[in-house]
Design brief:
126 residues, three-stranded parallel sheet, alpha/beta, globular
């Protein structure tokens, strides 16, 4: 789906990725690639958590990192800031699914917490 003529359309089926993305890493990338297969476009929702616990990056930095990593998919993604959503609730059949994407063990082990710790060790993050 890279480098095609897709144009974002809010009316088309769209998958959602909700997270902190502190920072965006290879595990997130692989997850995105799998989720994109579901609908062809993805709304990446960034929880507004900068400064809460160990979430050092502001939204604009997170958005820039995501857009840079996904530059080949620019017409298939939107990156939006949302409140610090901690619960996703729904009633009866509402026209969408909540589904877990299970990636291989090596990808599942990638940890943004460990990446931030390494960045601090290297002086790239306070």
């Amino acid at each position: 789906m890279k480098n095609d003529n897709h144009v974002w359309d809010n009316k088309l089926p769209t998958a959602q990725m909700l997270g902190r993305w502190q920072p965006w890493h290879a595990g997130h990338q692989k997850l995105f690639e799998e989720i994109l297969k579901k609908t062809g476009q993805v709304n990446i929702m960034v929880r507004d958590v900068q400064g809460v616990e160990d979430n050092p990056f502001e939204f604009e930095t997170v958005k820039k990192n995501i857009l840079t990593a996904l530059k080949d998919y620019k017409n298939r993604i939107q990156v939006t800031l949302v409140p610090n959503i901690t619960n996703i609730c729904y009633g009866r059949g509402v026209g969408y699914k909540i589904e877990e994407i299970v990636l291989d063990e090596k990808i599942q082990q990638i940890s943004a917490t460990k990446i931030r710790a390494q960045m601090r060790k290297e002086g790239k993050l306070k």
